[in-house]
Amino acid sequence: MVSNDGTARAVAERFRLGEGPTRVFGIALDDIGPGRATTSMILGADALNGFGAAHGGILFTLADTAFAYACNSRDVTTVAQSGTIAFLSPGRAGERIVADASEIALAGRSGTYQVVISGEDGRVIATFQGVSRATGGTVLNQVQG
Amino acid sequence: MVSNDGTARAVAERFRLGEGPTRVFGIALDDIGPGRATTSMILGADALNGFGAAHGGILFTLADTAFAYACNSRDVTTVAQSGTIAFLSPGRAGERIVADASEIALAGRSGTYQVVISGEDGRVIATFQGVSRATGGTVLNQVQG
Amino acid sequence: MVSNDGTARAVAERFRLGEGPTRVFGIALDDIGPGRATTSMILGADALNGFGAAHGGILFTLADTAFAYACNSRDVTTVAQSGTIAFLSPGRAGERIVADASEIALAGRSGTYQVVISGEDGRVIATFQGVSRATGGTVLNQVQG
Amino acid sequence: MVSNDGTARAVAERFRLGEGPTRVFGIALDDIGPGRATTSMILGADALNGFGAAHGGILFTLADTAFAYACNSRDVTTVAQSGTIAFLSPGRAGERIVADASEIALAGRSGTYQVVISGEDGRVIATFQGVSRATGGTVLNQVQG
Asked: Which value does ipTM take for this structure?
């Protein structure tokens, strides 16, 4: 629905104003809707590890950013409780990578989300599962604009 | 042992030359030895999320960096296969946070590591468990200096 | 494809001969194919915890069993390296629960799988992410019949 | 302290009355105290997988049982939210295995726990990290004796 997508986008845009990693790594918000979000970035030198591949922490950061948009997309303030990431294929210097977050399930205040990070050739670089917890309140009223 | 600590330090220093997040976030290497490493950083604006607290991805990055040093500390090239982080307390803007990584166990090519991230007042901010896999070769010969 | 489903079923049936938990908890194999499997069980007294709800370990066992069938479904011997489970809703005494395992991605010897456990009313009880590693060989030749 | 250990033991013993897996797999409670617990079992045929080694789900069950005793050891009713297990070495048929659970940290209602499962020869079979959440109330008043 347009109106739900509108809420999800408004929350994500509000978050983005304060997010350091979004600014530092140029994380784009490619798509957003209720329970889902897509983010992307180019793997510049700042995002690489000592082997010259994508740093695991920056892959997690891209996934976690998509997860945060997805789990706050209905404007109920929600925080990450835990996240697990599995690394399947190295991300290459200069490559554009995309993280697709989708809601698996909600139950009471808790939720679980899956995020898949893919490379330019479509191979899967990493998969992520996050657990969220709603804390009450709304993002659009809480976070300073 | 001094010589093992020396190897561990040499590997970590070699990694640090190429690590983007170490440069961007000013991640310090405070201690290093066989199977263990301690990293720290100050939570500047670049490390915050949309709520004004430490971004989960940057907490993961600090932990993952300590994990990488610990699991490569014997100069056997080793990569992360997966990592799980649980968030217990928000990291505050301007706070110095410390990640202590220690080896739980090694078995064949696999290993598991625990990392605890603490704040200035000693409270635990996050706990991390990582799974590593040795790929063969040595870091000091492989990574470009 | 019928022939791929046939291989997947043959591997699962071979496993089932030796699986203690399948026998103890009456775990059914409801569906199987390349990269996917569905298992189910009824939550009898043997599967409950001290609160009278489904024991987390038995929920993990049901998910892990589906995961094992899914990741061995092409008859390449594959073992679990790690698994993460998030508990969303208690499983109730006497309830029939179902675990649906599906492949997220394969890369070289590694793979990741998602399993969702649902209750009779369709609510999600738990979600699981597993990481697998192929060790070589084939199940149909290795496991004793 | 003797009195704290006494509370921890009383909670664990109350749980054990209702635990199916404890009965089915003969899980022993070897040690218990505030924030810690040790459980053990012998890997009989009921605990094996299709490869003839310890079933991952039963390893998780042993760890999760120790985790439950540890996180309820102060008689504040607490449930598992999530758990991650990494498998390092197969558990062998007939072997006695031991799970040592210890508290990493508590923060508000949340806590994290580490469990290490070892074999008879001291090798580590699996390592586990669990996240708990206190729900309020006390076990000794809530769980039916």
From this structure: 0.95
